[in-house]
Amino acid sequence: GNSVTQMEGPVTLSEEAFLTINCTYTATGYPSLFWYVQYPGEGLQLLLKATKADDKGSNKGFEATYRKETTSFHLEKGSVQVSDSAVYFCALLLRDSNYQLIWGAGTKLIIKP
Amino acid sequence: DAGVIQSPRHEVTEMGQEVTLRCKPISGHDYLFWYRQTMMRGLELLIYFNNNVPIDDSGMPEDRFSAKMPNASFSTLKIQPSEPRDSAVYFCASSFGVGYTFGSGTRLTVV
């Protein structure tokens, strides 16, 4: 079946460290891929997306590249800030799926000053 | 645009009472999704609508849960009777195409 697997958290880093949160997927066909972020006490917000292989999504210093050969969409940021502390969700969407997202379990990120 | 608006933000109720959660999607969005989030189960899709019509309610946990979308600008999720295990944050999201917009959620506590 279709699924998304994220690295388990929490991930704890110091400010200005390099961040990678791994995401791999299993899907029939060619999905679109997303990263959502949930700050404490808030709903999920779209962070970035990529709709086809080799696309790179980017926003707020975060990047992720759609790698079809490794079925991955790892989230990266060169220098994290305390304000990046949140839960990050990887998700995929299949065509003809009534726009229903398939979600990863989420990875909690903690940035220490 | 005010985004997806959910009410109330917090709800505390006694076991056995009826609870109604409300959602106003973004104007022009044709999909509406109800999710439940808990520490144990993570994010669960309960039901979703397309053009006000329920498409898939297989995620609704029990007959105690029901959802309606009487028009394009309003949806409700009702729990009757409520139980302590229903305590969670309930999110509504709407979309037009691939981008979802989530509301801020309703934190439900059933005591």
Commentary on this structure:
The complex is a heterodimer of chains A (113) and B (111). Chain A has no helices and twelve strands. By secondary structure, chain A is mainly β. The relative contact order of chain A is 0.34. Chain B has no helices and eleven strands. Chain B has strands at residues 5-7, 10-13, 19-24, 31-38, 42-50, 53-56, 65-71, 74-79, 88-95, 100-102, 106-110. In chain B, the strands form two sheets. In chain B, strands 2, 4, 5, 6, 9, 10 and 11 form a seven-stranded mixed β-sheet that branches. The mean pLDDT of chain B is 94. Chain A binds chain B through residues 32, 34, 36, 41-46, 49, 51, 89, 93, 98-101, 103, 105-106, and chain B through 4, 31, 33, 42-43, 45, 48, 50, 55-56, 91, 93, 95, 97-105.
Secondary structure layout:
The complex is a heterodimer of chains A (113) and B (111).
Chain A: E1 3-6, E2 11-14, E3 19-21, E4 23-26, E5 32-38, E6 44-50, E7 56-59, E8 62-65, E9 75-77, E10 86-93, E11 101-103, E12 107-112
Parallel strand pairs in A: 2-12
Antiparallel strand pairs in A: 1-4, 3-9, 5-6, 5-10, 7-8, 8-9, 10-11, 10-12
Chain B: E1 5-7, E2 10-13, E3 19-24, E4 31-38, E5 42-50, E6 53-56, E7 65-71, E8 74-79, E9 88-95, E10 100-102, E11 106-110
Please trace the helix and strand order of chain A, writing H or E for each element.
EEEEEEEEEEEE
As a whole number of angstroms, the C-alpha radius of gyration of chain B is 13 Å
Q: What's the main sheet of chain B like?
A: 7 strands, mixed
Low-confidence runs of at least 5 consecutive residues of chain A: none
Distance between the termini of chain B: 36 Å
The greatest interface here is: A-B, 20 and 22 residues
Could you give the distance between the termini of chain A? 41 Å
Query: From N to C, what is the helix and strand string of chain B?
Result: EEEEEEEEEEE
> Helix share of residues of chain A?
under 10%
Mean pLDDT of chain B: 94
Bin the strand percentage of chain A: over 45%
Count every helix of chain A, treating DSSP H or I runs of 4 or more residues as helices.
0
Q: Quick one: overall form of chain B?
A: globular
Molecular shape of chain A:
globular
